[in-house]
Design goal:
There is one protein chain. The chain contains twelve helices and ten strands. By secondary structure, the protein is an alpha/beta fold. An eight-stranded parallel beta barrel has the order 1-2-3-6-7-8-9-10, surrounded by seven helices. The protein has a two-stranded antiparallel sheet with strand order 4-5. Strand 8, helix 9 and strand 9 form a beta-alpha-beta unit. It is globular.
């Protein structure tokens, strides 16, 4: 049992406190640069730093966000005035999180499939990040639905890596966010997504048990059960909520403190509406907190407004705060589409 067990339990509970979710701002430099290039923002370390400062200094963000997942570059950066981002976050009441995987790589023997790497040297990285103030971590596994895939090889390999990562994090004092993402890309039906998500979660929790990971000290970050983006028949909000909760209830043990969904290619409105319907209709049926760990679904509108121009920071922060507020409401089953039109004010 980890020396940090009590601290880990308390952190996990705080990460999914009522009305709050987790902000995923851990995109790699390459991904961040691609988003910048689309908007004509210079792909430089200075602009990445400025963008991350915009997010972390958004006034009152902690009303709806418990913590933020950072990339390695970000946890080492400071604000324009020289305050380390870790200190900025502590002052703002945000728990510091860190992405620790090194990305999804081609899985040998399994064409079109990926396995996430990063276990080598992870114990030492966890120790360093804990010293820097991090209290939770993230590792993302990627499962693709396609012709004849996912293979059981791919699901097992990713689940095993997730479990070993989780055990190493808990040993070193970080709450592991366990993220098995079934990708939305493809023409598969919601029923096919259900089958794959069901099998994936089953294998992930088997591996977590085999690797002696206490489940009251993790947060699950799954994808929703949803139609593939290219599927001609798109399931409605009610069906997505119903099938997602059914899948979770079949697989997620009661000891897990929280489920924080990724938005994974949904529109801003969809990701809020799906989360809201789950909590509104089924909130009394599950024992864990059900909330968000969104990236683009919260940040993209602010990034679109900012466009690298510091004169746009206050308005961009208001947009960010507004999206966080809507998802905070959705995590309590209190979101309505009318709130999308509400005036933005902090």
């Amino acid at each position: 049992m980890s020396n940090y067990a009590q601290e880990l339990r308390e952190t996990a509970q705080a990460m999914v406190a009522p009305g709050k979710g987790i902000l995923a701002m851990d995109e790699s430099n390459g991904t961040c640069n691609k988003r910048f290039e689309k908007l004509g923002i210079p792909a430089t370390e200075d602009r990445r730093r400025a963008y991350r400062e915009l997010i972390l200094t958004t006034p009152k963000l902690s009303e709806f966000v418990s913590g933020a997942i950072l990339f390695d570059e970000t946890i080492r950066q400071s604000s324009k005035s020289g305050v380390p981002f870790t200190e900025v976050m502590k002052t703002a009441g945000l728990i510091i999180g860190i992405k620790v995987d090194t990305g999804a790589k081609d899985l040998a023997g399994c064409p079109e499939e990926k396995v996430t790497e990063g276990l080598d040297g992870l114990r030492d990285r966890v120790a360093e990040y804990y010293k820097m103030g991090a209290r939770f971590a993230k590792w993302r596994a990627v499962i693709t639905i396609g012709e004849g895939i996912p293979s059981s090889t791919c699901i097992e390999a990713n689940a095993h890596a997730l479990a070993r990562y989780a055990a190493l994090c808990q040993e070193g004092g970080l709450v592991p966010i366990v993220e098995p993402e079934v990708l939305i890309d493809g023409n598969h039906t919601i029923e096919r997504c259900y089958e794959v998500t069901d099998e994936t979660l089953q294998v992930v929790f088997n591996q977590l048990r085999l690797n002696k990971v206490p489940l009251d000290q993790i947060i699950l970050k799954p994808s929703m059960v949803i139609s593939g983006l290219a599927c001609p028949t798109q399931a409605g909000v009610e069906q997505v909520a119903e099938m997602t909760i059914k899948c979770l209830r079949n697989n997620v043990p009661v000891t897990v403190p929280g489920v924080a969904f990724l938005s994974g290619g949904q529109t801003y409105e969809q990701s809020s509406a799906h989360l809201n319907t789950m909590n509104l209709k089924y909130g009394s049926l599950y024992p864990w907190r059900v909330t968000f760990s969104y990236a683009r679904a919260i940040q993209q509108p602010a990034l679109d407004h900012w466009r690298g121009d510091d004169a746009n920071i206050p308005a961009a922060q208001q947009i960010l705060y507004h999206r966080a507020k809507l998802n905070g409401a959705a995590s309590l089953g209190q979101y309505t589409p009318d709130m999308e039109k509400a005036p933005v004010s902090v």
